[in-house]
Structure formats: C-alpha cells, structure tokens
Write a structure and sequence with these properties.
CATH superfamily of chain A: P-loop containing nucleotide triphosphate hydrolases
Number of domains of chain A: 1
CATH class of chain A: Alpha Beta
Number of helices of chain A: 8
Shape of chain A: globular
Helix content of chain A: 40-55%
CATH architecture of chain A: 3-Layer(aba) Sandwich
Strand order of the largest sheet of chain A: 3-2-4-1-5-6-7
Order of helices and strands of chain A: HEHEHEHEEHHEHEH
Number of strands of chain A: 7
Largest interface: A-B, 34 and 34 residues
Oligomer: homodimer
C-alpha cells in the first residue's frame, strides 16, 4: 500500500516534469534546479550570478520556500522577475508546483530560469521538476562528510558548488576528501570552489552555466 | 485521498510515539529528540555533552541518518552505547523506527537518551518520537533568517542551541534578531549560545538538561 501510493506519486511527478521540460524547451528557457541544505547560500549564488550575467542573459527566478518571501524580496532587488512558491507542509518543490509557477511566468522573456528549491539535502533530490541541470551547493561549514551521509543528492546532480571557501581558515574541511567522495558517487560531476562573499570562483561557475546552456540551445 | 493517507500515517505515528514514551518512562530514561540542518553540529554537541556529564548520568544514543555510520562511529569512541538507524529513502526518524530501536537497547542502563535525528530542518518537526524534550541546533553560518523560513521546527522545540558562535566574527549574523524571531514563534523556548569547538555555553546547556531531567524523574 505504502509503496504503491509512492509509485503513483513519483510516476505522476515524472509525467508532469516531462511536460514542464517541453514547455521550457519550446520557450527557449534553460532551467536550473538549485538545491542545498538551509543556509548554504543558494540565494546569494543567484544574486551573484544575476550580477555577473544580466547583460548577457535574461534571467527569471522561481523561489521555493516552506514559508516567507525573504528570498524573493532579496532577489527582486536585482531587477529580475521572481515568482515565490510557498510549499507549506511539503519538504520540496515538485513538478506540479513548478508547472503551476511556469504558467504564471512570461517564459519568452527568459533565457535562463533558476528554480531555487526548498533548503533540504534530502527530499529535493527525489523530485525532477523538468530542469535541464541539477546543481547542489554544499557550504564548507556543513562539513566534508555530507556526500557520504546524503548520497542521493550528490549522485543526481550535474554540478556541485563548494561555497563559503572564505571560511576555510576557520574550519576543518578537507577539500580533497570531499571531492573524492563526490566523484566516487558521480564520476562525471562538475565541481567548483566558490565564495559568494569574495567572488572567488563565480566567474568559472558562470562560464560553465553559459556553456551548458549553449549546448542545449537550438 | 492524499489527506486521509497522511492523517492515517500521522495518527499511527502519534500512537507509536505514546507507546515509546511509556516505555522510556517505565525504564527511567529521559529522551531528547535532537534536530537540525545537515552539519549544524548535532553529533559534536552529543560528544561534548557526554564528556561533560558522563560521571553524572549514564547516556545512550540513537543515531538517525539517511546512510553511513559516520556519526555512530564518532560517538562510540566516547565509550557510550550507540544504535545506528539508517532511514534510507525517508527524510526523518519516525516513532516506528525509534520503537524498534528502543527494543534493541538496554534501557535500564541509561538515565539519558539522545535521539539524533536526520539532518533536516523540515520533516523531523512533524514526527513525535516519544521524546521528553525537543532540541534544535541552529548554527550561525546558516543565517539568522532560518526561524522565519522554517517556522514549524522552532515552534515545536523546547530549546534552541545557537551553535558555532566562535565563527561570529567572520559572519553577518544578528543574534538579537534571531532570538526575537524564535521567541515570536515560541515564547517559552529556552535559547543557549554555544560553541562545541571552544566549549562556550556547554556548561549552561548541560545544567539545563540535568534540571529538565530532574523535573520529570519520579
């Protein structure tokens, strides 16, 4: 009973995600599902990316949160269009919520769409949304054991951003160990070391993003 | 359909939690459900607490994780009994898992049981386990907006530990703002500022724990 309910839910999610992906492709929008633990720096990353790329790409944002509009208020100040989705009692965005969000957005006005997922290193890995790439932010204060403890998130992502490297001198974080663990789970994954505070690595991340988008553009 | 499945699940959880609580009370064990985001410092807190209290209280541990035995391996080195529960595809411990764990533990040998929940600021708030007190760890690098963004966790807890205060000079974290937000959600909550690295505040937290335990002991 439990398993069949779960299978139905996940099957329905896959079907809705495929529909979202078709809509995004038709509209020429490259979409990123951005995931992490609470407070790893997803919103700061979006802000730095908007600042670096706003003259090159038209960027839209979906903000997923349990409650509040704190993140969308921050991002809106950068002059981009933002849609807030509050998921209430759910622990992740799903394809149905994102589909409803896409229907409210002027997709033809975007080249790139960030979907900032709920802060959670578990549930968001289980739901595809229709995105082109999955990106996970792991901040150094969370510790270098996280890929081993939360393997699905790192297995299912196309890119891992090691954020808050400016704090490295104050932490015991083994970058070699964490990269080995991530590549053990996911050999093809791209990894960047960044700091949204100092700007380190933001250029390289933005270059990757632009290149990945070109790879799928018609 | 969705709602009734959910109601059944939560109703069953409540019933099993009540059974766990009776067993704990009968065995004279004071139980803490310890929750936080990934990497906030739950395991380090348990280790510091064991070191501070091991001559006063007999302490047992249940470690809840998605995967791996990293945390239980760390805690076992302190000479305490530890049971690992790997929750797999679930995003939290629940009363059924904890009940199965309690059946395997020599409860009469413990005065205090830490149940370290899965690293997640959302799901664990929804499941009572049979614990006497709920404690949430919020580490400063996660940011001072977390209570507003994840209100259920802070509303449902008896105690909030603001951890990693040693990193405060390198962060923009407003302690007054976060305490006001937490007390706005939960006026009676106890809040401590601690650092498991420097030991700051650990004494005050342990004193609270001992006192809370005495309050319920027969």
């Amino acid at each position: 009973m439990k398993v069949s309910v779960l299978k139905n839910v996940m099957g329905a999610n896959e079907a809705l995600a495929a529909r979202n992906r078709e809509l995004l492709d038709r509209s020429g929008v490259f979409a990123i599902d951005l995931m992490s633990s609470p407070g790893a720096g997803k919103t700061s990353l979006i802000i730095e990316t908007v600042r670096a790329l706003k003259d090159k790409l038209r960027i839209g944002i979906i903000e997923g949160d349990i409650a509040s509009t704190i993140d969308s208020d921050r991002v809106r100040k950068e002059g981009v269009k933002v849609l807030q989705i509050n998921v209430g009692a759910e622990c992740s965005l799903d394809a149905n919520m994102v589909g409803q969000g896409l229907a409210k957005l002027p997709l033809r006005e975007f080249d790139l769409l960030f979907i900032e997922n709920v802060g959670n290193l578990i549930c968001p890995a289980e739901f595809t949304l229709g995105e082109h790439r999955r990106v996970v932010v792991l901040s150094l204060p969370e510790g270098d054991d996280k890929p081993v403890k939360y393997p699905l998130m790192f297995t299912k992502s196309d890119c891992v951003l090691l954020n808050k490297v400016d704090l490295a001198p104050h932490l015991e974080f083994n970058t070699v160990k964490v990269k080995t663990a991530i590549r053990g789970l996911n050999p093809g994954v791209k990894i960047f070391e960044i700091s949204c505070k100092t700007g380190k690595g933001v250029r390289e991340w933005c270059d990757w993003l632009v290149k990945e988008r070109q790879g799928i553009a018609r």
